[in-house]
Every structure is written in structure tokens, then in C-alpha cells.
Amino acid sequence: MLETSRKNIYIDLGDITKLDCQCIVNAANKSLLGGGGVDGAIHRAAGPKLLAECRTLHGCRTGEAKITKGYNLKAEYVIHTVGPVYSGAESDRRLLAECYRNSLDLAREYHIHSIAFPAISTGVYGYPLSEAATIAAATVIEWMETHPDDDISVIFSCFDKRTYELYQKLM
Ligand code: AR6
After folding, report:
1. Which residues contact 106 (CB under 8 A, 6 or more apart)?
2. What integer best gives the mean pLDDT of the chain?
3. Would you list the domain boundaries of the chain?
4. Is the N or the C terminus of the chain less surrounded, counting Cβ atoms within 10 Å?
5. Measured from the CB, is residue 38 less than 6 Å from ligand 1?
6. Residue 125 Cα, ligand 1 centroid: separation in angstroms?
7. Ligand 1 pocket, residue 59 CB under 6 Å
């Protein structure tokens, strides 16, 4: 895990389900009933109890976030958020930023001290990686600056080298 020049922000190259942190974020879909990509990996690693708890949540709107336990994961909690399907509209940027902000607000409410984010919307949902990573980094930094009393650690979990190198450059 790479420590960046920003206090409490780290970049990791690898599988988010293997991370030893208190909470991992899932790039889910509005049903919250599982899917491919990181969502599929998280459900496989957490086991069927995760899906059972997700069924009780009745979905999630784009940009919003909901929390469950982590079950068989090392992480105690999973925060499920739904990124925008990239369309090129101005709302994409706002909704993607809301995913990060709402996840961090929820983490704060649960007194979570470490949280890992995948690069939300940059897989199946088609958000251009460089734009999405810039929004992710800026939103997290801004949230930390507006919550100076909260010393939560944020890890950007990168599944491939391209994403990892991009976050490295941004930080
Ligand atoms: N650990 C960390 N990052 C991962 C992992 C992993 N194990 N697996 C994939 N990624 P995506 P989206 C990265 O498609 O674009 C699902 O079907 C991946 O390389 O998982 O928000 C949901 O159910 C990419 O950088 O999520 C939704 O229907 C990033 O995670 C839809 O996909 C996000 O890719 C959501 O699409």
C-alpha cells in the first residue's frame, strides 16, 4: 500500500475484497442484489448472508449509499453505493461525487476509521477513468478538509496498474 503525500490517503493495487480495513465500498447497481465486476467479487467473498441483508434494503438510488455488515470479509462493513452510468451529461460528475461524499458521511456516522473505495463507475458503467479518478480524489480531499476532526483513512483500491498509476499521479 502506497502512502501518499496527503495525510490519511493511501493507494493500493489489488483486490478490494482482500484488504484489511474496517469498511470497503461496493460499486453496486440500484437493485443492490449483486452483479459483475467488483460487486460480484464482494458478494462472492462475503458469502450469501450479504445478499440476504441487501434484500432488506430495497435498493439504492444513484449517488446514494447504504451500509451492511461484511460477513466473511475481513472488513466489518460494506458500504454499497451506486455510481452513474456514464452519459456525458453534467449530472454524471455530481452523482459520482455524491457517491464518495455519501459513503464518507455514512462511514462517519458508524465511527469507521478506514474505508477503501474502488474506482466507482469506471468499469461496466463506462465513466472515463481519468475524469472519474480526478472527481474521486478531489471529493475525498474536500470531504477531509471539511471534516478535520475525523481522522478516517481512505484507500483508493486499484484493480489494475493503469488505475494505480493514475491515482499516484493525482496524489
Ligand atoms: N477490487 C478492486 N477493484 C475492482 C475489483 C476488485 N476485486 N473488481 C473490479 N474492480 P465495476 P461500475 C474495479 O464494473 O463501473 C456491476 O455489475 C474495476 O476494474 O465493478 O461502477 C454492478 O452490479 C473498475 O476499475 O463497477 C453494476 O451493475 C472498478 O472496479 C455495475 O457493475 C469499477 O468497475 C457497476 O459498474
Report:
1. 65, 66, 67, 79
2. 97
3. 2-170
4. N
5. yes
6. 8
7. no
Question: Which residue's CA lies nearest to atom 8 of ligand 1?
Answer: 38
For the segment 3-57, what is each residue's pLDDT rounded down to a tens digit? 887 889 999 999 999 999 999 999 999 999 999 999 999 999 999 999 999 999 9
Residue nearest to atom 34 of ligand 1 (CA): 123
CATH number for the domain formed by residue range(s) 2-170: 3.40.220.10
Q: Is the pTM of this model over 0.85?
A: yes
Q: How do 65-69 and 77-82 pair as beta strands? A: antiparallel
Q: Whose CA is nearest to atom 33 of ligand 1?
A: 123
More confident residue, 41 or 1: 41
C-alpha cell at 149: 476532526
- Confirm or reject: Cβ of 13 under 6 Å from ligand 1: no
Give the atom of ligand 1 at the shortest distance from the alpha carbon of 120: 21
Distance, in Å, from the CA atom of 99 to the CA atom of 62, rounded to the nearest integer, reads 8
In three-state form (DSSP H/G/I as H, E/B as E, the rest C), the secondary structure along 13-31 is: ECCHHHCCCCEEEEEECCC
3-state SS class at 2: strand
Q: H or E stretch including 154?
A: strand 153-158
